[in-house]
TrEMBL record:
Cleavable signal peptide: 1-21
Species in which this protein is naturally found: Segetibacter aerophilus
UniProtKB keywords: Signal
The keyword Signal appears for this protein: yes
Protein name in UniProt: DUF4136 domain-containing protein
Length: 217
């Protein structure tokens, strides 16, 4: 094999490995001893508004705190809707149904709980929503380089070299009867400049699906 071909072959392997690695990260799963005895009682589950945070490894020169907070709110809404859409699309795969997130959010606002989810017990939230359990999620997103620079890298070297941020998802299921934590899933993932919130959630949920307690066996 000619040297040029060998170099091309090695580069192709490297790009493939980096492409795969960008979607992988550490994963942690916690399962309560009570999970199996409680989960079969669940019929309706609500997905709570996400707690989304956007941070920067190095703050941009013209960083706008208010704009960043709005971006966090928009990301939280997009992630919540993205998760619901994914679960709804695969409804036949689950042992429970999921409450429409618009109804969930409307009920939380009506009862003054929307901005106080960390100040009340999870069983109280379940009672207010009329569900058997809640899925509570936190998504953190840290930008690691300028988006403009990443676009250039993507164009020149491919999306595998266009990574701009690292993200992590923490998903927890709380029991409606006593508010206890039944299951917790944590996953890290690196994102490239082409990723949208829906794309991120699609990939995250594919990883979660292998461990999701409501998945039919």
């Amino acid at each position: 094999m000619k040297l040029k071909n060998i170099v091309t072959f090695i580069a192709a392997i490297a790009i493939t490995n980096v492409s795969l690695a960008q979607f992988e990260g550490s994963k942690q799963v916690f399962t309560s001893p009570k999970l199996q005895s409680e989960i079969f009682k669940h019929k309706k589950v609500a997905i709570l508004p996400f707690n989304a945070t956007i941070s920067y490894k190095k703050l941009p020169k013209n960083f706008d705190k208010e704009a960043n907070e709005q971006d966090q709110n928009n990301l939280a809404a997009a992630m919540q809707q993205g998760m619901y859409t994914y679960l709804l699309r695969k409804a036949d795969d689950y042992t429970v149904s999921f409450q429409d997130v618009e109804r969930t959010n409307a009920l939380l606002k009506q009862k003054g709980l929307y901005d106080k989810l960390n100040e009340v017990t999870q069983d109280s939230i379940c009672k207010a929503l009329g569900v058997d359990a809640v899925v509570k999620c936190a998504f953190t997103y840290e930008r690691t380089s300028s988006e403009g620079g990443a676009i250039v890298k993507t164009v020149l070297l491919g999306s595998a070299f266009g990574k701009t941020a690292s993200g992590s998802l923490t998903m927890q299921i709380y029991n409606g009867s006593d508010g206890e934590l039944l299951w917790r899933f944590y996953k890290e993932m690196n994102e490239d400049v082409t990723s949208s919130a829906n794309q991120v959630m699609e990939r995250m949920m594919r990883k979660v699906a292998r461990n999701f307690p409501y998945e039919k066996s």
